[in-house]
Amino acid sequence: MAKGKKQFAVIGLGRFGSSVAQYLAKMGYEVLAVDESQERVQDMANVVTHAVSADSTDEEALKALGIRNLDVVVVAIGQDIQASILTTLILKDLGVPKIIVKAQNELHGKVLSKIGADKVVFPERDMGLRVAHHLISPNIIEHIELSPDYSIVELQVPSNMAGKTLRELDFRVRFGCNVMAIKHGGEKMDVTPRADKPLQRADVLVIVGNNGQLLQLEQAYA
Ligand code: ADP
After folding, report:
1. Residues 114, 11 share a domain
2. Which PROSITE patterns match (predicted)?
3. Nearest CA to ligand 1 atom 15
4. ipTM score for this prediction
5. How far apart are CA 31 and CA 20, in angstroms?
């Protein structure tokens, strides 16, 4: 293992946790995988550096695993919200530098942020949003989440938008969205797009906005 490379632990080896652990291991990182289920630990044994069966709500067990010495710990406990919160609290007390936790819902996420989780992720919600964007508009090329409420999307100019100018389209007033840049095929990118230049079918708009309003814009031109 290359010295200086980040070391990770993943607690909870359900679909999400095992996928995180697997990809980190594949990229050559040292990963400690923890689950209270022997069976799940067994499944990961040949994939990650160390796979250990332990209850992460047991502080002594986590101490014994030396988890405080790792750089990042991912808490991927799904259904059991209490176990997820307790585990996060213990990791925080142990002084783990970076704790990333999967949340089941908004309230769970709020609690996790309050007790000091460095990053809270909502995989199901985020994937659902992505799929919705693609379903509403097949012209969406990319979707980047900036915060729970705001995103950047890349939209291939649809035929019912081609030939119109940004002034005519008036996205700021109609959808509260802003066109940050326009890609003209390949690598060429105009980061100060002009309001009076007709858009072309080959252009790709880079738009920032509120998720709900972005979806409305996509729907209007789908
Ligand atoms: P997903 O939705 O990602 O599949 P699951 O809820 O199926 O998530 O999986 C969560 C995993 O976390 C399970 O394998 C479960 O055994 C594990 N887990 C739950 N509570 C604890 C705990 N206190 N300590 C260790 N592992 C736990």
Report:
1. yes
2. RCK_C, RCK_N
3. 12
4. 0.89
5. 10
The reply to whether the predicted model has a pTM over 0.80 is: no
Is the CB–ligand 1 distance for residue 15 below 6 Å?
yes
Q: Is 84 in the pocket of ligand 1 (CB under 6 A)?
A: no
Q: Which residues of 5-23 are buried (b: 16+ CB within 10 A; e: fewer)?
A: eebbbbbbbeebbbebbbe
66-89 confidence digits (pLDDT tens)? 999 999 999 999 899 999 999 999
In a domain, 75, yes or no: yes
- Any residues with CB less than 8 A from the CB of 43 and at least 6 apart, and which? 13, 18
CATH, residue 82: 3.40.50.720
Residues in the chain, total: 222
Closest CA to 155 of 112, 215, 101, 105: 215
**31 occurs within a structural domain:** yes
Question: 166 CB contacts (<8 Å, ≥6 apart)?
Answer: 179, 193, 194, 195, 196, 197, 199
